[in-house]
Amino acid sequence: MAMSKPGPLLAWFYRAPSALYRARLGWILGGRFLMLTAVGRTSGIARRTVIEVVKREAAGASPAPPTLWVVASRGRRTDWWRNAVANPEVRVDWRSRRYAAEAVDLDAAARLDLLADYQRRHPRAAAMLGKAALGEAFTADPDDLRFLARDLRALRLDPKEA
């Protein structure tokens, strides 16, 4: 089961990094976070949220922006995921870069691969994600990973050609 919506204090804490990105200081948070700007699916207003980057893939030796992957820990109830799926033309602020990207919704098999890779690279952070989503810590157990992949949602953010 996906995480519940955070309370007001925790929601404020989660939104605080957005101020850094708006001030063009997102680089302070390093490469582990990005700010995603997506058009609201019903309002049509630009919505911003800071999200953990769970995987990145450089575009070779070129200076092109990398492809980034993000996970929606509240599953289908995650507002930023719903907005990006409805309007896949998004803006990414990552480190000191800002670029247009296309949000691609991952299928269950791709989510499973992504979560398994994340668990191998960041076992402690993955355990926290599992605790938040499952209510208990998880390991690399295939059943736990399949359960998470079924419940969570993830996007691949492909940079657009300039």
TrEMBL record:
This is Nitroreductase family deazaflavin-dependent oxidoreductase. GO terms for molecular function: oxidoreductase activity. InterPro entries: F420H2_quin_Rdtase, Split_barrel_FMN-bd.
